[in-house]
Amino acid sequence: MKLLWIAISQFQKNNSLSGITSGMASTRYRILMPAMELQKINHHISLAAVTDNVMPPALLDNLDCDAVIFSKIIHEINEKIAIIARERGARVIFDICDNRFEHSGLSERYRNMAGLADVITCNTQGMADIIKRYSDAPCHVIADLCEGQRQPAKFSPGETLNLL
What we know:
By secondary structure, the protein is an alpha/beta fold. The chain has a single domain (about 1-140), classed as Rossmann fold, CATH 3.40.50.2000. The chain has 5 helices and 8 strands, in the order βββαβαβαβαβαβ. The strands form 2 sheets. A 6-stranded parallel sheet has the order 4-1-5-6-7-8, with helices on both faces. Helix 3 (about 75-85) packs parallel to helix 4.
């Protein structure tokens, strides 16, 4: 499959296995880590960042894909991108890990995008229950991945313990 992930933050080059990272944890957990695993099994992965309310110049050429996955949204242009992608035959997937439907200036954006999505993914069952109030699209829970190896729990508060 040919998949395009659209993020709200820029990607940075680094020395990791993928060669790419992000300062935003949700971008690493909800885009980079799944993309890297899907690439290992021969899916074609493209990444794009929409950080302003403008269409990135090269993005139109990459919308000819099987699915476009939006991980969070901020700008109205994401809705236009979703419409163009759908017109070109791509499935639109909206990945949600924060409730922006009721508690932020982004509620209209999230409601509109949920209405455009063919499928919605989210990180918890609680989030899925909220999404069902705003969209009839199938919603699937995909828990966040963890970075690095599991470490034993340790208690190391320092010299002064502040409890309250």
